[in-house]
Structure formats: C-alpha cells, structure tokens
Amino acid sequence: MPMNKSLNKQQLQAAEFLNGICSVIAVPGSGKTRTMMERIGKLVTEHGVAPENILGLTFTRNAADEMRSRLIPILGELSQRVMLSTIHGFCFYLLKREGFVFEILQGKEQMIFVKDILKKLKHSGLSTGMVMCEISLAKNNLVSVEEFKALYEGDNTMKKIAGVYEMYESEKKKRMVMDFDDLLTGVHTLLSENSYVRGKYRSSFQHLLICAAQLIMTKIPLVIG
C-alpha cells in the first residue's frame, strides 16, 4: 500500500521513526492521527512488524473509530489485526483476559452509589460531584486511601471525603464492581507488580502508539513500554 504523500517534514519524521520513544506535541486538528496511522503503515509494510504486535491507544471511542477508518486505506485487511482502542477499553480487555471478574460502575449508577455512601456517613453537606472528582483525582495520581487521609489530616472537609473514599473502595470490592479509574489503576498495579504479565504484554505489543488531544493522567504506557 502506498504511503500518504501529504505529510509535512515534521510529520514524516514522526511517521518514519522506528525504535525508542518519540513524542509529538501538536494542537488539535494538526494531523496527529494521520501521522500515527502512517507510522503504523510503515511499521508493517516497510519494517516487517506483525500487525498484532502494534497497539494504538487514544482517549475517546470516536477517536478510536477514526483511527480505524484512517488505517483501512493504508493497510487494507491487515488493519483489522492491529489493536486500536481507547485506554480504558484496553485496560478492560487486559483485566478480563487476566481473569479478573467485575462489572463496570459508571454514570448515574456511580453517582447513586456515592450518594448512598454519603447518606450512610451522614455527610449531607458534601456535594456528590465534588466528592467523586476528588476521589477520581486521587486515584489517577495513585493516592491510596491511607495516603489521602494523611495528606488532608488537618482539613475537616477533606477528612470527610477521605471517609467516603474508604467506604467507596470497600463497597466496590464487596459488590465486585470497578469504575473507570479502577481500570487504569488496576492495570497499572498488575503490570507493575507482576513481571510475568508485564513481560507477556511487552512481548505481544512491541510498538505502542498513543494519540490524544489532551493530557492523559495515567502511567500505564510507561509500564507496558
């Protein structure tokens, strides 16, 4: 398949990059997705990389669909063998493949879940949205419940949120559910602590490409790569 000839000099450099770490910082709409798909095409057609050994990640489902649609003209049927996914979708896939049993807690159900905890703890003055935001921020920064408590020991409001955080984690385990943040932290913990699993996915995905128009607060790509 012929490569796209419309890439500019900088995009072409990124598309032709082979080994190591390459970071491309550009504004939305500047051609990051096209460049990434062209690079995947070159990895397969010019460097003999098996499509199954390439993992392409992005942040939204629409962006993942867009990547797939742009890769088809470049690789044809081979494009179906490249794993293109959202980061959360890939984490869901990995955890399920490794035998984890859980359901996803999201949206309205997650909000009701937190509201019920607030009622149990009699924290009527706390906003459900604020509590969910603080817990999500902590988890994305890998701050455990105990670390959260120690961090905000002198703040009465945050101490209450710490109590909600603690019960939230405990109740989720009892009900065997995970929220979207758990997908990220769960995979990070698994890959960090289990050398066998980490080695398996490093072997499976020898080329990891991430395309996002915003900063993704996760260390998972660093663990895999």
Structure overview:
Helix content is 59%, strand content 8%. It has helices at 9-16, 32-45, 61-75, 87-97, 107-121, 128-140, 145-151, 156-175, 180-193, 195-204, 220-224, and strands at residues 54-58, 83-86, 103-104, 177-178, 207-211. A three-stranded parallel β-sheet has the order 2-1-5. α5 (107-121) packs across α8. The longest helix has 20 residues, at 156-175. The radius of gyration is 20 Å and the shape is elongated. The model has no long low-confidence stretch (mean pLDDT 90).
Concise overview:
By secondary structure, the protein is mainly α. The protein has helices at 9-16, 32-45, 61-75, 87-97, 107-121, 128-140, 145-151, 156-175, 180-193, 195-204, 220-224, and strands at 54-58, 83-86, 103-104, 177-178, 207-211. The protein contains eleven helices and five strands, in the order ααβαβαβααααβααβα.
Secondary structure blueprint with pairings:
Elements: H1 9-16, H2 32-45, E1 54-58, H3 61-75, E2 83-86, H4 87-97, E3 103-104, H5 107-121, H6 128-140, H7 145-151, H8 156-175, E4 177-178, H9 180-193, H10 195-204, E5 207-211, H11 220-224
Parallel strand pairs: 1-2, 1-5, 3-4
For the structure shown, list the relevant keywords.
single chain, mainly alpha, 3-stranded parallel β-sheet, two-stranded parallel sheet, 59% helix
Put simply, the count of helices is 11
The rounded Rg comes to 20 Å
pLDDT < 50 stretches = none
* Anisotropy-based shape: elongated
Q: Approximately what portion of the residues adopt beta-strand conformation?
A: 5-15%
How far apart lie the N and C ends? 28 Å
Counted beta strands: 5
Instruction: Using the coordinates above, name the CATH class of the largest domain.
Output: Alpha Beta
